[in-house]
Amino acid sequence: MATLPGDTGHATTAEDAMALVDERGVVTGWSEGARLLTGYTAEEVTGRPVSELVHGDTEAAGRELCTSGGTVVAVRRRDGRRTELALRVCPLLGGNGERRGYVVTATLDEGGQALGELAFRQSSMAMSILDTDQRYLRVNETACRVMGRTEAEFLGRHFPDIAENEEHSRGFLRHLRKVVRTGRAVHYESWTRAPTGARTHAWNTEMWPLRGPSGQVLGVALAAFDSSEQYWARQRLALLNKAATSIGTRLDVIHTAQELAELVVPRLADFVSVDLLDSVLQGEEPTVGPVDTDLELRRVAHHSRTSGVPEAAIALGAADVYPPASPPARALATGNPVLTRTGEPDLDGWLGRHGDRSAKLREAREHDFSLMAVPLVARGTTLGVAVFVRLLTERSPDPFDHDDVSLARELASRAAVSVDNARRYTKERTTALALQRSLLPRAMADQAAVEFASRYLPAHSKAGVGGDWFDVIPLSGTRVALVVGDVVGHGIHASVTMGRLRTAVWTLADVDLPPDELLTHLDDLVGHLSGDDSGVGGELGATCLYAVYDPVARRCAIASAGHPPPAVLFPDGTVEVLGVAAGPLLGVGGLPFESTEVDMPEGAVLALYTDGLVEARDLDVDEGTTVLCTALAAPAGDLEDACDNVLKALLPERPADDVALLLARTRALDTGQVAVWDLPADPAVVAAARQHATERLTEWGLDEAAFVTELVVSELVTNAIRYGGAPIQLRLIRDRTLICEVSDASSTSPHLRRARTYDEGGRGLLLVAQLTDRWGTRPTGTGKTIWAEQTLPTAL
Predict the structure, then answer these.
(1) Torsion of CA 64, 70, 71, 76, to 10 degrees
(2) Distance CA 450, CA 664 (A)
(3) Last residue in a domain, options 666, 696, 726
(4) How many angstroms separate the CA atoms of 366 and 389, rounded?
(5) How far apart are CA 56 and CA 38, in angstroms?
(6) Among residues 466, 465, 623, 609, which one has the least CA distance to residue 545?
(7) What kind and span of H or E run contains 56?
(8) Is 272 helix (H, G, I), strand (E, B) or coil?
(9) First to last CA, the chain
């Protein structure tokens, strides 16, 4: 309500103060409310130009009044006073949409109304008012600027008739109709390109109903806020958050580079390539070299939003030479991103020199493009360069800007740290792996007791190479020791420790200790390594399984130090996990180890392995062991195929822990290859022992070895009778070598000594050592056995 000064008791509303003006600006209608506001009667005004009522520049005021949607105008009242009126102008349209005149409504401007009008027109948000049929009634200056049209082009027109973005138009129109239908305000976000700008905009739009005095919806008002900066900031933050979890998931240089390329396409670029220095791929400290010469880089990753990566002129793994003026070389030389686009001399000159690259980019899409070359710098060291390419199309005409450069720099920096970590890991892993492979058995001689096959797979994990090992050690009497072990930890330290333990096992095996005693000595060694002051041992722990198989007795003695028990595939096809006492880990100290003896028929396959095999998947140890047994029972052509079956059944492509696997098929010596005589402790039996040996050699066709064998038998049996005592046993074994063994009841081991000139004895063992290839002694349950080994005559 507005009350006129001096007109006590009279009031009017904005709807009452109304005038009709034709298309020429002549008043054709005048309401009672208009008379009350101005003092002019309808007879005095009708037929006169509306501009005559305006105070001041009547021509300009009239023109503004008839072309704007609303304004504040100073009007000259009939009594000569000047009055500020807030006017609303609405065009009158004919049946064909042509403009036939205007409806002008007015209220007194008492300060707030004028400010409200100015707030609408000058708001930084795009604001509009539409009727219930989605025709424009008011449009402020910001909306006109955003849409690239004048207000006159909007007024009275249906929204779909002027919308240029069809997809955006459908969503906008749907929300307008929803407000009219429901009478409730709506808020939504949209993403579109403004007609007056190249950059895509994000909009937060609020629509609310305009109601009349009776509550009916007369139209819809809307305000749209350009939230592009906030939108792009959220997108950049989301991409950086994504980079934190998706770049550097593996300690692999090439995989990390590919993760960067796949992350930014198509979020930031249409094509990305990552080139690194060769020294980085080799795990060495990178060297860029002189900046004024051509630079060679190797392509390790690229990705495109187009299938097949048609933009790539360099194949993965191939090297390319970049001239000093090229963007990638400049980025590497300066350590700063280089931003360019087609048409600029540096880019066109580089592409002109490299015709394949230029042709590939233009074949992919015949459009100009924007390019960023961003160096990969970590810890002050330049590793390579990432090149980002964005094709400039009608749909996406925005070239890279400084915000994009900042984002690319941050992504490249994160990727560079991961690449450098992978490079350092590669160097350490390569060193540890080379060390470990040098310590593992390279080529093991074939054994009479077993046929064997083995596998060693290093870990592909962040922890690095572990300390798993295995061995096949020949022992006296055609026996063989099968060993598998695992050092706790990873890296060079684990590899070095593994080498020390493997050497210790070989040394202890040469002494021919039983499995449980050997592990006891090995446990003492680990305890010393853990407690030394060199820093090499640290908190050292290891597991080990030591098995000795005797092909004559066809028995296997096994002892374990915290290691998984072996599995056996028997000749009848059944598979069994042997019940071996696990024993404590090596290095615990003070606890005993227990040896278990198992009958092992000829043709049985003994499987020794480290825990990385049965814990390779998402399986517990029991499930993994079950899978192992099933794989062992599967048909296989030979032991090599059996190894492959086991690994295929249990291991992923990239095991997380080291895996050692040793399969050994047992052999047996038949009774015709072994001769055994029990002898009394009587010196007179020495001649009979020589006679027994000579006769058996004749049966075996080894008469050429009789002379040496007689001397060996004579010396060993004599020593057993003189120093050992009953029971005494002589055994000859014919296999790949001829072995003579004499056992007695004494546990005292003999040793070589040099006899003086007039000594009557002391030359026996010296003679044996000189006449045979090898000799030695081993403890037994009742004493000891002295053995000597000869090479069979070559004619045989």
Answers:
(1) 80
(2) 6
(3) 666
(4) 14
(5) 16
(6) 609
(7) none
(8) strand
(9) 131
Residue 105 backbone zone (phi > 0: left; psi -120 to 50: alpha; other: beta): beta
Distance CA 62, CA 75 (A): 11
Give pLDDT tens digits for 11-32.
334 445 888 888 888 889 888 8
- Examine the domain organization and report whether 390 and 263 are in the same domain: yes
- Amino acid identity of 782? T
Residue 235 domain-assigned? Answer: no
Rounded Cα distance between 126 and 147, Å, is 9
pLDDT tens track for 705-751: 999 999 999 999 998 998 888 899 999 999 889 999 999 988 887 76
Distance between CA 318 and CA 337 in Å, rounded?
24
pLDDT exceeds cutoff 90 at 37: no
Q: Whose structure tokens read 């040098």?
A: 438
Residues contacting residue 189 through CB under 8 Å, at least 6 positions apart = 202, 203, 204, 205, 227
* Pairwise CA distance, residues 395 & 537, whole Å: 64
Q: CA 611 from chain center: how many Å? A: 25
Is the pLDDT confidence value at 756 over 50? no
One-letter amino acid of 174 = R
Q: Which of 107, 104, 112 is nearest to 37 (CA)?
A: 107
Taking phi over 0 as left and psi of -120 to 50 as alpha, with beta for the rest, 490 belongs to beta
Write down the residue that tokens 């028997």 correspond to.
Answer: 570
Looking at this protein, which amino acid is placed at residue 391? L
Would you state the structure tokens that stand for residue 425, as one six-digit string? 């890991």
Six-digit token string for 713: 């038998």
Do the domain assignments include residue 233? no
Strand partners, 106: 87
Residue among 275, 266, 272, 264 at smallest CA distance from 303: 272
In a domain, 151, yes or no: yes
Q: Which residues pair with 468 in a beta bridge?
A: 486
Per-residue confidence (pLDDT) for residue 582, from 0 to 100: 86
**E strand spans, 140-199:** 186-193
Neighbours of 437 (CB within 10 A): 13
H or E stretch covering 217: strand 217-226
Measured CA to CA, the distance from residue 227 to residue 194 in angstroms comes to: 13
Tokens of 248: 């550097």
Coil vs helix vs strand at 88: strand
Q: How many domains does the chain have?
A: 5
Same structural domain for residues 712 and 635? no
Q: Residue 777: which H helix or E strand, with range?
A: strand 774-779
| DSSP 8-state code for residue 721 | I
> Omega into 266 within 30° of 0, i.e. cis?
yes
Given 3-state DSSP classes, what are the helix, strand and coil percentages for the chain, each rounded to the nearest 5?
Answer: 35, 30, 35
Joined together, the tokens standing for residue 409 give 């720099």
Last residue of one domain, picked from the residues 428, 455, 478: 428
3-state secondary structure of 450: strand
Q: What is the residue type of 124? A: S
